[in-house]
Amino acid sequence: MSTHEHFNGSATDSEYDPYQYQHGRRYHAYQRGRYDLPNDELEQQRMEFQYHALRLAFGNKLFFAPIGDKPAKILDIGTGTGIWAIDVAESLPDAQVIGTDLNPVQPNWIPPNCSFEVDDAEQVRTFPANHFDLVQNRIMNAFLEDWDRFFQQSFRHLKPGGWIECQERSVAVHSDDGTLSEDSHIRRSCNNEEAAWNKIESSVNLRGEELQTRMEKAGFVNVMVQEFKLPIGTWPADSKLKEIGAVQLVAMLEGLQGLIIAPWIRHLGWKEADVESFLEKVRNEWKDKNIHTHFPL
Q: What is the reported pTM?
């Protein structure tokens, strides 16, 4: 199988078995072991909630890059369920939108100007040079080992004057008012998550300034960093932030097990029963309205 397989209509048309099962969850089989998160329905629901929270945090913007009203080609790397690519395709019906991912979990019914391909973002891409108006990726910080190569390839595939946009979320939970203690289960969970990904030379806490430096190293100019806060829970007084926090809380409560169980077992040596016991304590803290936390974006 090549590292850049094309599927007409949907990546779910694969003729091989794309799944493996561990820890009571379903994982991808293509490039086995490259991605430690599951791809089952529960994980897809988490990704949908995460997407909705980000849309709210970004004021319903799909992207910030000034690509104009008539872009011709857009590439979404790490498309996940494909929801961003589908929304962009519907909002820009004259643009061709391609989403790539290791996981063939995208829907069958998609706009005619949208397509999906099974692809590993770490491998050499076969797209033409000077081809795209926008390359977009979102929350890929733990899943790309070589950001320099990623930006170099993206630079090659973009048209002159094209844009790349990275929307990244750190897992280093912040609390501006000190309501999250250093010995909390939430804090310990974040530290363990970082340690697990560090074992395979990945990081879940990349800062915008680091990505900016790597972009400029690849040749990009006019690089801008915008920072946001993604609240977790319904503690904010502001109604908009409360809505964002409510959605993000659902994403964490429903999806936390999938985020940590494989990395902790595979890379930190935890036992499955111990992970589940720890998870329950983390969930209880997330639900505590006296703990005011947010993720940096």
A: 0.88
